[in-house]
Amino acid sequence: MKKEIVMMVGPTFVPEKVLKAMNRKSISHRSEEYCKIHGKVVEGLKRIFGTENEVLILTSSGTGAMEAAIQNCFSPGDQVVVPVIGTFSEQFAKMAESHQLKVVRVEFELGEAADVDRVMEYVTEETKGVFVIHNESSTGVTNDLESFGKALEAKNTLLITDSVSGAGGLKMKMDEWKIDVVLCGSQKALMVPAGLSFISLSQKAWKATKSSKLPKYYFDLNKAREFQKINQTPNTPAVYNVFAVEEALNMIFEEGLENVYKRHINNTNRIIEGVRKLGYDIFPKDDRYASKTLTAVYAPGKAKAIVKGLKEQGVIVNTGLSPIEEDVFRVGVMGYVFEEDVGGFIEALAKLS
Ligand SMILES: *Cc1c(COP(=O)(O)O)cnc(C)c1O
Hints:
This protein is an alpha/beta fold. It folds into two domains: about 100 residues, Aspartate Aminotransferase, domain 1 (Alpha-Beta Complex), CATH 3.90.1150; about 230 residues, 3-Layer(aba) Sandwich (Aspartate Aminotransferase, domain 2), CATH 3.40.640.10. It contains twelve helices and 15 strands. The strands form four sheets. It has a seven-stranded mixed β-sheet with strand order 2-10-9-8-5-3-4, sandwiched between helices. The longest helix has 21 residues. It is globular, with a radius of gyration of 20 Å. The site of pyridoxal-5'-phosphate has 13 residues, from α3. One of its GO terms (molecular function) is alanine-glyoxylate transaminase activity.
């Protein structure tokens, strides 16, 4: 039973069953027992990603997988295009620059999604990659990956996507949408503590790794791929998190992936409707691209006080991120969040209004 209503945007609430899955004796990451679990987890993650490609398990937070994507697919001086719609896309751009890539930023107003046609105006023969955040957690906006995939499919450009706050909560069809790299972390929609990230590469992306000249060691994905053949990792993985992911995936597939997506959509729609009834609006400029895993609520000048007031009532949500931290608070429905939690949140918010 929940004592508090936890609707954070990550780390998210870890269900009792998942916690219990970690309450067991330590096993070697080279043991048969481990390899079996690893293999099962990878199969489950493939379903979450919508791919037949390998999904590699890295021991890092989501940011590590972002770095792995850059280190393995690119070389110094490569030109990449990054649509910037908020904090996490800006972080991706900075990370690319720190690896000596030539970054072309395409800036959008905060609260907007990346317009594919406008981004494509900057994509040339020279462009080696386009970095798109699936679900921008700072503004609560979901980008249209399918359209990016269509626009880039015939080009020699990789579509690199960060789905840290998407996969497992939002529909993700890596193969069908022609995405070259998908990555996510354990502590958002997968309702597992932070510590693991997951990354999958298309055949086109694996080919690019062969000519990549950036330094890589811990995140050498070709090495990881070799170990994956025997359901292992090059170094010690966060074994207890792997136990947890196994259980979390069981829970997700028991409920049914489509049902999980629907629950996220329904809960978010209730939040949007509820906050609007109380006189607030959402931060995204158009409902069509408003995220279904978290809602950025627009409360100019009052956001921090609201987060505090909710906490005093046992409802845990997140403040906004710079530069909109005074005006936006964020409510997550990722993972283990149900209708009654949403009801509790709206009730608590009503008391503050
Ligand atoms: C949470 C998040 C990250 C960063 O993940 P860490 O696990 O904190 O490294 C990256 N991108 C997006 C969109 C996120 O929501």
